[in-house]
Design a protein that fits this description.
The chain is an alpha+beta fold. The chain is about 15% helix and about 25% strand. The radius of gyration is 31 Å and the shape is flat.
Length: about 675
């Protein structure tokens, strides 16, 4: 930017002295030259020429040969070709098709010299950094590199060349997070930006599409003027977009290029590794990975004696446990019997599907048996240990989980739809480990909510659990955060069908099956999850909740017997008493409100009853707290905590909850 406009130079009355220019790649204004005061057309035009030349030269010096060459923002999935949909879009080759981790951004060095891209950043539509290149990344002339949203436990496919510079925006086998941490924050099909910025903060390249607008001066939109066929790319294209030819060409859908492939990360668009299929080749199946094998271990077995006072059978233990080596003992039907042990395994894809059982993986004999029991990546893993002799037959079934990784299981109950429950188990798991329940908002993104708590849970010996109340089976507020209390004609449902009861049952199941000695658990929820939590303690007053965190709730059910439900507790089907309200306000409820959560967005309830609590979430939290104070309970135990500078973000209000729980350990 010229600090002195050029037209001023052409003014006959202008005297040129020091001339300062902001140039790309420089910090602040620099002095180009100093001229004596000279009047005359020759000097004025010469100065103008020198300044413009310097600007153009500076712009050229700021340009980089690193080019954004291919982007996948809509991962392929074609149920007609493959009903499972698990592998057609498996761009990173980890054996799992993921809408998040298989997104990628490909760069290439189009120049004649090597370029060090250490510390370079990739940014998204909100100018938020979604990946930073580590130290020591140097791209040679013509060399490609690719950044994926994530990668599963198995890692990137071995089909990628070993020299390829390949990166993941997420670590630790996270397949449902991707760029910006999952949910609605991945590369948007409807419109988004991919911005490449060097270590000095200079924007090198930008590609954007759909409803997005340019964020830099180097932006290129995937619209008619920049695409081969004159179309605009957004929404459901189910493939990558790429330059054709590479580096210099206009943009095209990958399937329209000669080889008809859907993507080619880390390689020219004419070279595709053999597991990337065309539309007509989708019959060969995904890459086959060997599942980890369970095995028996015969060393250091415990000495077990026949106990005539005990009945025959397996000595059962925790029904949920970490993968690894486990020892089992059994009492035979008589002192002369030898027990035969057999190990079976059932696996169920954590993306959904039918269970597959493998019987008789290994068999051993003796009063004790020891097995190495790995979890199968991406699959709910249940082992069945069978023991028998001529007088008895017994089976013990249990889940195994990998430490420090997010996995899931299906919770089944008699009166409700099956519910997927995500969890992370610390490597330090023991009987003193604690439980925390993480309740998602209306986004229904239980996985990404749990991912925000993952590291903290691992470091603090917590089992963190996040049930997914999906929109299909638990639609809207009524079925989820209002508890699923009523039928369509207003009758009160059986308590076993309440969403509140489901959560209570899940925590008790985990506490019992992990063999935890702490009867209580903590519960944290954001937005709709915060609504769920504060009502949970109203309708499940006997639940063993130690601390209940309600963060940024949209509106509240006040502990008021005169206000009609759901804004209060007045309802002909309810029988709340003043003692119930005293008990409720005696519980440890921590209300978290972010000071910047003041917008009246479309997802904020704006009924007259809700607005009576305040015009935004921040004010409504204070209303709820004051309703509790009005009970005048001498044992009032609520806390109202302001999160300074935070907005309507689950991450903003998770941090103080974590700090609060850490203080309890000191």
């Amino acid at each position: 930017m010229l600090l002195i406009p050029v037209n001023m130079l052409l003014n006959s009355n202008f005297s040129l002295k020091n001339v300062n220019v902001d140039a790309p790649g420089t910090k602040g204004a620099i002095t180009l030259f100093t001229l004596p005061k000279i009047n005359g057309d020759i000097m004025r035009y010469l100065a103008c020429f020198l300044i413009i030349s310097f600007i153009l030269t500076g712009m050229a010096l700021a340009q980089s040969p690193i080019v954004i060459n291919e982007i996948m923002f809509d991962v392929p999935k074609d149920p007609k070709e493959d009903p499972s949909g698990d592998w057609i879009g498996d761009a990173n080759g980890d054996g799992i098709r993921s809408f998040a981790s298989d997104e990628f951004i490909e760069l290439v060095n189009s120049g004649n010299t090597a370029v060090d891209i250490s510390g370079w950043k990739i940014l998204q539509r909100k100018l938020k950094t979604i990946f930073t290149f580590p130290d020591g990344v140097i791209l040679q002339p013509g060399e490609f590199c690719v950044v994926f949203g994530g990668v599963g436990d198995r890692g990137f496919s071995s089909h990628f060349p070993p020299t390829l510079k390949i990166f993941s925006a997420q670590t630790g086998g996270e397949t449902d997070l991707g760029f910006e941490g999952g949910g609605r924050n991945n590369l948007s099909n409807k419109g988004d930006n991919v911005i490449l910025r060097n270590a000095k903060g200079v924007d090198i390249a930008e590609v954007y599409w759909g409803k997005a607008k340019a964020k830099t001066s180097v932006g290129i939109k995937l619209s008619a003027s920049n695409t081969i066929d004159g179309s605009s790319f957004s929404k459901e294209i189910r493939q990558s977009v790429t330059r054709n030819p590479d580096i210099t060409g206009l943009w095209a859908l990958h399937s329209t290029i000669g080889n008809k492939k859907l993507f080619s990360p880390g390689a020219p668009n004419t070279v595709v590794y053999d597991y990337y299929k065309t539309a007509g080749e989708q019959t060969g199946g995904p890459i086959k990975f060997d599942e980890p094998k369970a095995s028996s271990i015969s060393t250091n077995l415990p000495v077990v004696a026949f106990n005539p006072k005990a009945g025959p059978g397996i000595q059962k233990g925790a029904a949920m446990r970490l993968e690894g080596i486990h020892t089992f003992t059994a009492n035979p039907s008589s002192a002369k019997e030898t027990i035969k042990w057999t190990l079976d395994r059932t696996t169920i894809s954590e993306k959904g599907g039918k269970p597959a059982r493998t019987n008789s993986i290994v068999s051993v004999s003796g009063l004790a048996a020891r097995f190495n029991l790995p979890k199968v990546p991406g699959k709910e893993t249940i082992y069945h240990v069978r023991a028998s002799d001529s007088g008895f037959s017994d089976t013990f079934s249990f889940h195994v989980f990998s430490p420090k990784k997010i996995s899931s299981f299906i919770y089944k109950s008699k009166d409700n739809p099956d519910l997927r429950v995500y969890l992370v188990v610390p490597a330090t798991l023991n009987t003193s480990s604690r439980l925390i329940m993480i309740m998602h908002g209306m986004s229904r993104t239980a996985y990404s909510y749990l991912a925000n708590w993952k590291r903290w849970a691992i470091e603090n010996n917590y089992i963190a659990i996040a049930p997914l109340f999906d929109e299909k089976n638990w639609p809207g507020s009524e079925f989820y955060n209002l508890g699923n209390l009523f039928t369509g004609n207003g009758k009160l449902k059986p308590e076993s069908q309440w969403s509140f009861s489901v959560v209570d049952d899940i925590t008790e199941k985990c506490r019992m099956e992990f063999s935890l000695i702490n009867n209580s658990f903590d519960i944290w929820g954001h937005s709709a999850g915060a609504q769920f939590n504060h009502r949970f303690l109203l309708f499940k007053p006997k639940s063993n909740v130690r601390f209940c965190f309600a963060a940024n709730a949209g509106w509240y059910t006040a502990p008021n017997l005169k206000i009609a439900f759901p804004y209060g507790l007045a309802h002909p089907k309810f029988s709340f008493t003043r003692q119930d309200i005293f008990d409720y306000t005696s519980k440890n409820i921590i209300i978290l409100r972010a000071t910047m959560d003041t917008e009246r967005t479309s997802n904020l309830r704006q009924s007259p009853e809700a607005d009576a609590q305040g015009r935004n979430r921040y004010k409504r939290a204070k209303y709820f707290y004051q309703q509790g104070l009005m009970i005048k309970n001498p044992h009032f135990n609520w806390k109202l905590i302001d999160v300074q500078g935070g907005g309507h973000s689950s991450a903003d209000v998770a941090t103080p909850a974590k700090a609060f729980l850490e203080c309890l350990k000191k």
